[in-house]
User: Fold these one by one.
Assistant:
Number 1:
Amino acid sequence: MSWKKSHLVVAVCIATCASLVTLSYLQRTKLFSMSMPGIGLCRGIPANTTITPLKDSQTFIITPYFDNRKNKMTRVISIVHHKEVKELYCWFCHPASGEIHISKAEIDVHSDRFDFPYGATDLECLEPEDWDPRYVSIHWSPTGDITHLPIFEIKNRDPEGSLVEFTVCISTMFGEYNNVLQFVQSMEMYKILGVGRVVIYKNSCSPLMEKVLDFYIAEGIVEIIPWPIDSYLKVSSYWHHSMDPKDIGYYGQITALNDCVYRNMYKSRYILLNDADEIILPGKYEDWKTMMQNLQGQHPEAGVFLFENHIFPKTVFTPTDMFNTSSWNAVPGVNILQHVLWEPEQKYVDNPRKMIIDPKKVIQTSVHSVLQAYGISIHVPVDVALVYHCRTPLQKNLSRFLLIKDTTLWKYNMSLIGNVSKVLQQIAWKTKEYS
C-alpha cells in the first residue's frame, strides 16, 4: 500500500509541475502576444528595454531597422566590444509558418570609437529574399533554441506616423542634468525656428528637470528614450579613452545619435544633431525652413549640412537691462540672452561642426560629421548660420576685448522672452517652486 501511495504522490507532483510549466509558458506566450502583436508562431523573450544585453555580456542590442537603400537587409544598431565579438547571427522568424532564417551578421564597428573598447556598431544582416521578416533575434551561434533568445521587432518595415519638417536629436542627458533655464530657452528657440519634435536620450536629470521634460512631453513636442547605459558599461563623460579609460565614451552618445537617425528616418524631413546647450542659429534667414529651402536648392545632391560651432562663454556677461527677465532669476541654469560674445577661432585648432541632415541619405554618423552617406556634405558659411554654443570657455585666459560680439539671438527676444516666461510660470505653478 505504501508503495502505491508513494507512486501516487510522485505522479501528482509530476502532474502539478507539468501544469505549472504549461501555465508559465502560456502566460509568457500571452505576454509576448500582448507586447508584440502579429508575432504569430515566432517565439522568444520580448525585448522591452532600450538597451538589451546578450548573454555574452559584450554585445548590447539597441534596435533593428529595415534598410533597403542598397540591399534588402536589417541593420541592427548596437554596442559591441571591438576585439572580443567576432561572430553574430540574425535569426529571422516567419510569423505565419514559424520558419527560421539564419543570416550571418556583418559586424561593422564605427570608425569613430576614440580608442574606447566598446563602440557604436551596425550588425548588417541580409534578409530572406522571398518573405519579409517582422522580428529578429541576435545570437552568437547559428544553432540553439530561439525560445531562450530576446526577440526584437524590426522597425521601419512599414513607416508610419506624422512627418515633421525638423527633428532635434539630443544625446545624451546625464549627470543629474539641471541647467533648466538654458534648456527651456533652447526648447523655445527650437520651436521659434521650426522644430516639430525633440528626441532626448535620457540617462539622468534633476527632479526639477524631470518636471520640465514632463511639461514638454505633455505638450507633444518631446520624446524621451530611456538610456540606462551605465547599468551595463563603465561610462566616461569624456570623448577620448586617454582622458578617462572606461568602457565607452560620452555615455554612448554616438550610438544614441545613430539610433535617433534611423528612428526618425521616415518621420522627419531633416534631423538636427546637437546638444541641449547648442542652437543652430540662422543669420540670413528667420527660420530653419527658409534656410534649408535655400541651401537644399543650391545643393540638391547634398544630404549633410555642417555648421561652424562657436563658443559663447557663459562666464562673460553682457548687460540685458532692456529685457524684463527678472522673474527668471530663481531658475537654475544659464540665461543665454546675457551671453552674446564668442571666442575667435584658434589657428591650427580644428573647429568642430554640428549638422542638419537628410536622414534618408545617411548611413552612419558621428558627432561632428557623418561617417557614411549617399549624399555629399556641405560646409555652411558662418554668415548664413552658426552653432550658438553657450558653455564654459575653451580659451579661458582670453580678454573680453578679443571676443566677437554677435547679437543675432536678440532679434528673437520678444518671442523668446514671452514664451520662456509662460513655460516657467506653468512649471512654477505646478511645482510651487524652482527646486
Number 2:
Amino acid sequence: MKAKQHAIEDAAKKTAEMQTRLREFAKMYNVIKNERNKCVNLIQTSTQRAGEMREKIKILHNEIEILQQSANNKERKVKQEKRKYASIVVLRDNLQLELVNRDT
C-alpha cells in the first residue's frame, strides 16, 4: 500500500512538473508568436513602403525626363536666337559699311 501511495505521489509530482513545463512552453510559444507577428507586420509595412518608393522614383524619373527635354528645347531656341542675332549684327555692320562707303 505504501508503494502505491508513493507511486501516486510520484506521479502527482511528475504531473505538476509537467504542467509547470507546459505553462512555461505556452508562455514561450506566445512570446515567439507575438515576435513573429511583429516581424510579419514589419515585412508588410516595409514591402508596401518599398513599393511606394519605387512608384515615386518612377514618377521622379519621368519628371526629370520632361524637364531635360524642356531644357534641351529652350537651349536649342537660345542657340537659334543667337545665330539670328549674329546674322543681324553682320547685316547691320554691312549696311553701315555701305553707308560709310556711299558718303565718302
Number 3:
Amino acid sequence: MSKILLLFTLFFISSNGVNSESCSKIRELLGDDSITVGGPHNDICILDEPSCCNKAVENALVEKTRDILKNRVFLVLNQFYQTIDQDSKTKQSMLTKVITNTNLSQTKKVSLAEKFSAYQTGVNSLTTDDLDDIKTASAVGSLSKILDVTVSSECQNLLYFEMESLKNAELKYLGSILLMLRGYNILTTVITKAQVPDLTDECYIGAVRGGLREGQNLRHIKFGGCELCHDTTEFAHPCVKLCRNILSGCLKGHIQIRDYIQYLAQYQIQLNKLVETMTKERDTATASLKAEVKAKLSRDKEFHDRCSALQGEQESGTSTQYDWELSYDEKDARNTLDSSWLCTYVFSGISEVNCWNRSAVAEYKLSVYEYSDEGQFMNPEVPGDGPAISIEDQIEQYKDYKYKVEELSAGRDVLKPSSASAHASSFILVVLLAVFVT
C-alpha cells in the first residue's frame, strides 16, 4: 500500500512538471546542491503545487536578484552618461583654447578659468570688466592666429572699431560653450542621483516573480526567478508585458528624473547647434577683420607705418575643425529609464506568447500601466512608492539654464552679470526719494 502511495506521489509531481531528482536549474543558479522538491511553502512565488522553492530558496533568489538587478537596470543610463561625457570633454577643450589663445596675464587667465568653472555650476561671478577683457583678448588672439603674427597693443588700438564685430562674436561663442557645459553639469548630477538609492524590496520581489534574466541561453543566466522553481525541461521567457510592469514599477521613483534627462538632452542638442553657429560666425568675423586689416594697410598711411608687420609673410588661414555630430539624441535620453526598451535591450529573454506570466507558462492578462505617477499607482507587480530621490536643486538650475538657452537662441548675451543688485539699488533710491518728498 505504501509503495502504491509513493508511486502516486511521484506521478503527481512529475505530471506537474517538476523533476524530483535534480532541481538542476535552481541548484545551478544558487550553487546549492541541497535543494529538493517540497510542498508549496512559499511567500513570494505564486505556486499551488510542490516545487523546488521553499521560503529559504525564495529569499536566496531575492538576494541574488538584489546583487545584479540594479546594475542591469541602470546599464543604459551608464552608457548614456559615458556618451555625454565624451562630448563634455570636447566642449571643455574648446573652452580651454579660448583662454590659452589670448595674451592675457597668467594671473588673469587663472582668475577667468575659476569663474568659468563657477559658471558651469550655475554661479555667474563674471564682471563687466572680465567680459571686456576676454572678448578683446580672444578677438586679438583669433586675428593673430589667422595672420600668423602678434598684434601689438598699438595696432589693436588703431583697429578698435573694426574689431567690434569679432569681439561680439567671441563673446557669443564663449557663452554657448559655457552654457552647454552647465547643461552637462546638471545632467550628470541628475544621472548620479538616479543611481544612488537602492531599489525597493517590492521591486526585487517583482523581479523574482517575473523571472527577469539576461540573455537567451540558460548557461548565461545571471539571475532567475519563480519559473525555475518548476524545473521544467522547457525554458520559458518572461512575458514582455510582465517585464514592462516590473521594470516601470522598479523605476517609479525615477519618473521625474527621466523627464528631466530628456528635457536637458533636448536643450543640449539645441545648444550644440548654437555652438556650431557661433563658431561659424566667429570664423566669418575673423576673416572679415583680416580683409579689413589688409584694406586698411593699403589705404591708411599711419596704420601702415605702425602696423606693417600685420601684412605677414605667412598666413595660416586655418582654424580648428570640430565634428558637430553628437553621439546621442533625444531617443537615447528617453530610453535610459524606459521599461519597454530595458526589457528588449537589457533583458533580451522576453516573449509575447508561451511565456512565464509570474505563476505559469501562459498569457499575461493584466494591463500594462503607463510610466507616470498616476499609472504606477496602479502597478500590479511592484506596489508601494519608489525610492525617494530629490532633484529640486537641479530643477531650479534647469529653469535658469533653459531661460539662458532661449536668450542665446534670440541672440542675447548669457554671460552678462546679474542685474538684480542694480534693480535693488534703484528700488532703494526710489523709496528714499519718496520718503524725502513726503
